[in-house]
Amino acid sequence: MTVRGSAPVADVIASLTRDVADFPTPGIQFKDLTALFADREAMAAVIDALADVASGADLVAGIESRGSLVAAALAARLGTGVLSIRKSGKLPPPVLTEEYDREYGAASMEIPADSLELRARNVVIIDDVLATGGTLSAATRLLGRTGANVTGVAVVVELTALGGRAAIAPLPVHSLSQA
């Protein structure tokens, strides 16, 4: 997939990603994708590339907040529904909750417990960045508890040195860019 003439989508992602040292905690290098999402050509290229990966999904699930942003655009492109996997405390009860560890502390995520039928639906999970894999692994477990069939994971940027892919194995992982 190319954009802006002949530049591969991975190069465009890298050129529009800002590294922020020591955010949200010391020692973490945050990948700020704001400029990427605000650039209509770049965002369209990201969604086009992800559409190839997610074709055949019944539902696109995005991890709050940046993953949900990408997932919503992808679901609109594919003509599917979208599910936002939310941070704890953002949804009214009843909810299903999954706790997990990430590279800078413990967290939990939630989905509605009784307003969706997810059993046997083919779901692809979308997130902005794959780091240690804790968040995506927890999302996979959470959706698995509903009976959903998670068919794969797709991310905009994968931080390969952190080995997050192993935490999600054997689930297929597709990354548009690696850093």
Q: What this model shows, in words?
A:
- The protein is α/β, with parallel strands linked by helices and 179 residues long.
- The chain has a domain at 55-178: Rossmann fold, CATH 3.40.50.
- The chain has six helices and eleven strands.
- The chain has helices spanning 9-15, 34-38, 40-54, 66-78, 134-145, 164-168, and strands at residues 2-3, 7-8, 18-21, 29-32, 59-63, 81-87, 95-102, 105-112, 122-130, 149-158, 173-178.
- The strands form three sheets. It has a seven-stranded mixed beta sheet with strand order 7-8-6-5-9-10-11, sandwiched between helices.
- Strand 10 (149-158), helix 6 (164-168) and strand 11 (173-178) form a beta-alpha-beta unit.
- Helix 3 (40-54) crosses helix 4.
- The longest helix is centred in the first third of the chain and has 15 residues, at 40-54.
- The chain is globular and about 40 Å long.
- The model has no long low-confidence stretch (mean pLDDT 93).
Give a short overview:
The chain is α/β, with parallel strands linked by helices and 179 residues long. Helix content is 32%, strand content 36%. The chain has a domain at 55-178: Rossmann fold (3-Layer(aba) Sandwich), CATH 3.40.50.2020.
Strand-pairing-aware structural class: alpha/beta
Could you describe the largest sheet, including whether it forms a barrel? 7 strands, mixed
- The coarse silhouette is globular
The number of E-state strands comes to: 11
Q: Extract low-pLDDT stretches.
A: none
- What percent of the residues sit in helical stretches (DSSP H or I)? 25-40%
* Alpha carbon gap, first and last residue: 18 Å
User: What is the name of the CATH topology of the domain at 55-178?
Assistant: Rossmann fold
Q: What is the CA-atom radius of gyration, in angstroms?
A: 16 Å
Strand portion, in percent?
A: 35-45%
Family: Belongs to the purine/pyrimidine phosphoribosyltransferase family.
EC number: 2.4.2.7
Keywords: Cytoplasm, Glycosyltransferase, Purine salvage, Transferase
Main location: cytoplasm
